[in-house]
Amino acid sequence: MINKIGYLKWVGFFLILLVLFSGFVFNTAGFTALKSYGEAPTYKVYALDLPDTLNFADEKISLSSPDLKERLDRELLVNTYWQSNMMLLLKRANKYFPTIEKILKEEGVPSDLKYLSVIESGLENAISPAGAKGFWQIMRTTGKEYGLEVNSNVDERYHIELSTRIAAKYLKKAKNKFGSWTLAIASYNRGIRGIQRNLNKQKVENYFDLRLGKETSRYVFRVLAVKEIIENPMKYGYVYDHTDLYYPVPVRYHGLDTAISNLATFAKKMGVNYKILKIHNPWLLQNHLNNKSRKYYEIAIPEKGYY
Asked: Which of 95, 94, 71, 66 is nearest to 224 (CA)?
């Protein structure tokens, strides 16, 4: 009797397992069928409506060629659907574009060139694997060639105002060489000699007729795509209030032509702390300023009440 009861218990246990397993299989099959043939998921990815023409620095760019249309489509899709990155770029642009635009205007170059800094660095003081630094990703030799101070104590490639001037001067030189801003932009990536060599070899006169390596081939279209999205954010699905954006912090400038033995102590005298001083003066690399040459520097100090 005991053995018979034990046997019946095991039979019941296996029957319960069979029922549960059957239900799992049914539900899984149903879910798979729903995924394959049923309702679409709530989240949708849309193809983008491409413009027929674009304007960059007063140059009209036709997108009638399938090649050009596909290249722009790629960069628009990549940037539109990398939502977190693009939202950050929109927020940072509101903070940094006023400074960049002011200097580009003073240097006599189109405001549209500011979009190069977006694709070069994401509007951060970035460092590339090749050693390019700052918003404009300037190489050490180029920085020195154009008069920036670059050493272990001071690196003015991190100085947004000074580095923007250097980028503008380079792009003006390239524009004078090639006669177009799109070729000047391409040379910012490939170099003036590299672009000229390709123009001569391929016997063409503009960027859009050139066959280039992958990076330079994408470069101008990345600039065009970022400009299109930042200037038309709602069209590409970006929704925000102006209060969501980042804003520049007003600063005053403290001029000096002497050394600073301790930046933390100097910061306290200026009414801020070391962290805030470094945020607004990232070109100061160490906790002191050597200045043996008695060079004149202007150090940005945030106005009171912002920290």
From this structure: 71
**CA 179/CA 172 separation, integer angstroms:** 10
Strand partners, 56: 59
Distance CA 213, CA 193 (A): 15
Q: What does the alpha-carbon distance between residue 155 and residue 231 come to, in Å, rounded to a whole number? A: 32
Tokens, residue 104: 């580009």
* CA 109 to chain centroid: 21
Q: Could you name the CATH architecture of 53-244?
A: Orthogonal Bundle (1.10)
Whole-number Å distance between alpha carbons of 122 and 136: 10
Q: How confident is the model at residue 304, as a pLDDT?
A: 87
Task: Region of 294 please: left (phi>0), alpha (psi -120 to 50) or beta.
Answer: left
Query: Domain spans of the chain?
Result: 1-44, 53-244, 251-302
What does the pLDDT look like over 111-136, one tens digit per residue?
A: 999 999 999 999 999 999 999 999 99
HEC string for 22-83: HHHHHHHHHHHHHHHHCCCCCCCCCCCCCCCEEEECCEEEECCCHHHHHHHHHHHHHHHCCH
pLDDT (tens digit, 9 = 90+) per residue, 136-170?
999 999 999 999 999 999 999 999 999 999 999 99
* Residues composing the chain: 307
The alpha helices in the chain, defined as continuous H runs, are: 2-37, 66-80, 83-106, 114-121, 140-145, 160-178, 181-190, 192-202, 214-231, 263-269, 274-280
